[in-house]
Amino acid sequence: MSTASQALFSPIWPLAKIGLKELASRLICSGRNPDAAPLLMFVFDSVSAMSASFLFLGSIEITSVLPMISIDIIENLVLSIRVIYNIQKYKDLKFKASKSSVYNEHQQKIRTMEIKIELLEKQMCEPVYTPIVLQSDTDIEADDDEDVEYAEKVELLEGEALVCMNQALRLLLNFLASEGSEIMSSFWALVMIPCFNMSQNKKFMYTFDVLSKANFEKAILFCVVDLVLEMLTFISMAIIIRITCDINVFRVLFGFARLRKIHRPMLAICCCITIAAFSFFMKHYGIDPRFKWDEFN
């Protein structure tokens, strides 16, 4: 792709990826297997990261790299804010539920004390002739209705809190899967680009053949910057979530992967996507028909 095409295409690529991810996530979460959403995020970001790494090698310019990195960082920040917001909302609802429950208990204690005081007053004023009535049936029914109302309110608040926590955990898993795939893809790109640049058959590769020493160094620099930024974003968001919400994101990620037994399949999927994306790139964008795979070193 030319530099002008890259500058035009670079912001469209990540925005389209974000839109497709959000649509697919909503469709999956509304179905019967919402736990598949993190795996889908992993696949989407792996395909996007590897394809972008190879498609933009022909003419590496800051105008094509900077928009992609900026949009990706903004996406991660927004997703982290959504996670923190849902967790804080969960804490607020749990606090309100506990407060309502405690208030209901205090109200019951106050009513019991009022009954005892009324009983003592009647015993002191009319100790012999007046029968003692603790509570009428109407009062008992009113108290029962009030208790049921408080119980329903507490149950509703706890239900809303669980919904918020469920949403926060799903967003957190999506964030972890997305960042993990991008880090792995950036690492693979950083390994594969120098390998093919040092190949003896580089003259048969259109894209790598036009890479001068300066352009190759620039391509490696952008790959390193992308990998470092992805790792820093991931670690920074993990620290922020740990401080603000007291949640260990690594424990959540590994626990979910072990529970669903998908940690090995996710690594295999990333490797397969890497190979497929690179093969597609080499076949359609960067390889001469005279290239012989059996002579590749």
Can you describe this structure?
Keywords: Membrane, Transmembrane, Transmembrane helix. The chain crosses the membrane at residues 180-199, 219-245, 266-287. The chain is mostly helical. It has one domain (3-85, 168-295). The protein has eight helices and no strands. The chain starts with a helix and ends in an 11-residue tail after the last helix. The model is unreliable at 128-137 and 284-288 (pLDDT under 50).
Range of strand content: under 5%
Give the biggest sheet: none
Strands, count:
0
The tally of helices reads: 8
What is the straight-line distance between the termini? 27 Å
Q: What fraction, in percent, of the residue positions are helical? A: over 70%
Radius of gyration: 31 Å
Element order: H for helix, E for strand: HHHHHHHH
Q: Kindly give the count of domains.
A: 1
**Global shape:** elongated
Class from secondary-structure proportions: mainly alpha
Mean pLDDT: 68
Q: Low-confidence parts lasting 5 or more residues at pLDDT below 50?
A: 128-137, 284-288
Characterize this entry briefly.
This protein is mainly alpha-helical and 297 residues long. The protein is built from eight helices and no strands.
